[in-house]
Automatic annotation (TrEMBL):
Pfam families: ACAS_N, AMP-binding, AMP-binding_C. Belongs to the ATP-dependent AMP-binding enzyme family. The lineage of its organism: Bacteria, Pseudomonadati, Pseudomonadota, Betaproteobacteria, Burkholderiales. SUPFAM superfamilies: Acetyl-CoA synthetase-like (SSF56801). Keywords: ATP-binding, Ligase, Nucleotide-binding. It comes from Roseateles aquatilis. This is Propionate--CoA ligase. Residues 65-452 form the AMP-dependent synthetase/ligase domain. Gene3D superfamilies: 3.30.300.30, N-terminal domain of ligase-like. Residues 517-600 form the AMP-binding enzyme C-terminal domain.
Amino acid sequence: MNSPIDATWRAFHQRSLDDPDGFWAEQARLVDWERDFDQICDASRPPFARWFVGGRINLCHNAVDRHAARRPDDAALIWVSTEVGQERVYSFAALKDEVEAMAAMLREGGVGVGDRVLIYMPMIPEAAFAMLACARIGAVHSVVFGGFASQALADRIDDAEPVMIVSADAGSRGGKVVPYKPLLDEAIRIASHQPSRVLMVDRGLSAFQPVQGRDLDYAALRARLLGTRVDCEWLPSDAISYTLYTSGTTGKPKGVQRDVGGYAVALAASMKHIYEGRAGETFFSTSDIGWVVGHSYIVYGPLIAGMATLMHEGTPVLPDAGIWWRLVERFKVTVMFSAPTAARVLKKHDIEHLKRHDLSSLRTLFLAGEPLDEPTARWIADALGKPIIDNYWQTETGWPILTLARGVAPAEAKFGSPGVPMYGYRIELLDERTGEVLTEPNQKGLLTIAGPLPPGCMQTVWRDDERFVRTYWSGVPGRQVYSTFDWALRDEDGYYFILGRSDDVINVAGHRLGSREIEECIAGHPAVAEVAVVGVADALKGQVATAFAVLKDPAGAATPEAALRLEGEILRRVDQLLGAVARPSRVRFVTLLPKTRSGKLLRRAIQAVCEHRDPGDLITLDDPSALQQIRDLVG
Ligand code: AMP
């Protein structure tokens, strides 16, 4: 058969499925173990899987100490802020010192093994120190994206119940100071759980009043504790490394929980086989530590591989659209990771911003987090003259499900496809209603993974095994398989194409938002009776959220001025409670929402109408005038 998929890759992939023990035992040698494991995978209690059972390991040792011992002066963390005009470079030795100082602060604050530490920080080195310090002492970090506001933060505080919170006075975005401390104080005020300590990094961007007896000053503690030795706490492989909240169908975000050993091995293997990052080189991911890409490929992955990680506080277009490429040139970046939206933003600027720099060090640009459209892929490939590799994965998996592993064998990219299933993933396309496996090419089905999930993937939902099983493993009749909640098809060559979510997740510029969370926030406005939030296709951001609200008193939006005023109020409410990242592009007022006769909101039909598509079979629609109102509004 004439296939664009290389035979070496086929054999590699097949072995990962036929002989997972042998395959993963080999990958496990990419990291250091204090005690070797006795069993590769315990899958005796499906769908739960425990990887490298009996092994003892530490993520911080693998990311920092082992490199500090061998190559202490090599760069480990390069921080550039084009927001505040500062730069710092930490060698592995210096990074170890900073992490140990932070670990000592956490210990003094009463943080022990298994305790949670919530990190609510902008893109500054101290955020990475905090994560690594948690890993060092066996604490569980829970990073909350800095774009989230007080209610979103309070919900996460109540779920994680942190002993300590690490935060900063402010971030900066597009040259504008974004204070964090007032949002954090408000979140703690409305949360039921109260952290005993808040460790504050004061960047001098936004004055704040420390809370007596609770807030600690990072600079003062650092002055005292730098030089303190804090040994790595060796943890069982299946101990919890972190939780990271992600949106789904309900209003309550899920704490995706990950282990230590499986994650370390999965990241080390991905750095070798997928990203081809080598010790001594520089990796540049433009994501944020608040997202899974930031965890896996700003902090842990590159460092585990012995690479320097470049952390950038800033946007791709300030001071101009050449900034990222100047950084690539200056720091000799070899591997870069970004999102399609960033490429679409750059596309609006002069291509010379990319072309005029010496990008000879750069081997590959990886893009992930949302669908990569063909015009954008072609534009950036032409502009850079480098291979563009799409990655498809999720917060839940921690590393790519579909891509091309060019570290294993040469592979041809196909525009519009993230690639082929990665090693360790047993991918099946299923008919959602019958559970039947779709074997023919080009059939649309639900993208699922047969258990056990490979190392690095989520262990469970934090403190809610039942929700883990119900949410991810119970959607298909007669089968217990993990649902990605994405539709996909596979072509004749075995390449997959992602066709959109099967649930109510909205993907704005690669940021994952839940319809329900935004709806609950808007429904809290006193004038609103009920509301539907849907994701609508957008040329720049992939999708934007749009809200349709029914008012308790329709007179509230009777005139265009009144409607505009109310829309502004509702949008401000979302900004204040959830954060600007969740703000819908519009709030439209209707007198009725499209629902089924049994009262289920037809979000998919609303979305279709907004995108001028056929809403499909509307046999269950209760009142057709509801959809007509939306059609009239969107034109
Ligand atoms: P997150 O958990 O925030 O990483 O979001 C994961 C979701 O983003 C996936 O379930 C997909 O719906 C979407 N997604 C991520 N990467 C890609 C990609 N390369 N192509 C298409 N969709 C993607």
